[in-house]
Design brief:
With 183 residues, the chain is an alpha+beta fold. Helix content is 55%, strand content 25%. The chain has two domains: 53 residues; 102 residues, Ribosomal protein S6/Translation elongation factor EF1B (Alpha-Beta Plaits, 2-Layer Sandwich). It contains four helices and five strands; from the N terminus they run αααβββαββ.
Length: 183
């Protein structure tokens, strides 16, 4: 079979076209796609590395901030007893009342009131007592400087009928307790 020069050129061009098509479709294009994927991964990793370097540059500041926050948490834990420390708090309150000669007739801690989305709960305490007016003032001053947070909400003073220096006191107060999930 003898082909003309024109047919040989057409077959040669057709062969070259098929060769380039298969080379493009099955070799070049998949490798180009893989190179694009790898370039994208490299870019993502470079961004993460840069972000890590920024965090590493701030590491000393972050350590200081962490130390300050830890210190503040320890301070708050002193002011806010954990639930297991409530009896100790109540004993301390009782000792303070005894120190000021407060004769209580009602001392009733209530159930904890959980605050929504707060790290603390409130412990209401209802207290009714009879004491000297000045001792009551000293007791309230001591509550203000108590080692735990105490918040007096309602305070009613009624003078006793036969002794003008003695008052009957009815008060509602709260102390705050760290919730179980934050300990």
């Amino acid at each position: 079979m003898k082909l003309s020069k024109k047919a040989k050129i057409i077959i040669f061009i057709l062969f070259i076209a098929i060769f380039f098509y298969f080379n493009y479709s099955f070799i070049y294009q998949p490798r180009k796609n893989r190179i694009d994927q790898l370039d994208q991964q490299i870019s993502t990793l470079n961004n993460k590395i840069e972000e890590g370097r920024k965090i590493a540059a701030r590491l000393d500041d972050l350590k200081k901030e962490y130390a300050e926050l830890t210190e503040r948490l320890e301070f708050v834990e002193v002011l806010l007893p954990k639930e297991k420390d409530i009896p100790d708090f109540l004993v301390l309150l009782q000792e303070t009342m005894d120190e000021f000669n407060i004769d209580f007739s009602n001392f009733s801690p209530q159930n904890l009131v959980q605050e929504k989305d707060a790290i603390y709960a409130r412990l209401p305490i209802n207290l009714t007592y009879t004491a000297n007016y000045f001792e009551t003032i000293k007791f309230l001053d001591r509550l203000e400087n108590f080692p735990r947070i105490v918040d007096v909400k309602d305070l009613k003073l009624n003078p006793e009928a036969d002794d003008k220096e003695t008052v009957n006191v009815n008060m509602n107060m709260f102390t705050y307790v760290l919730r179980k999930g934050t300990q």
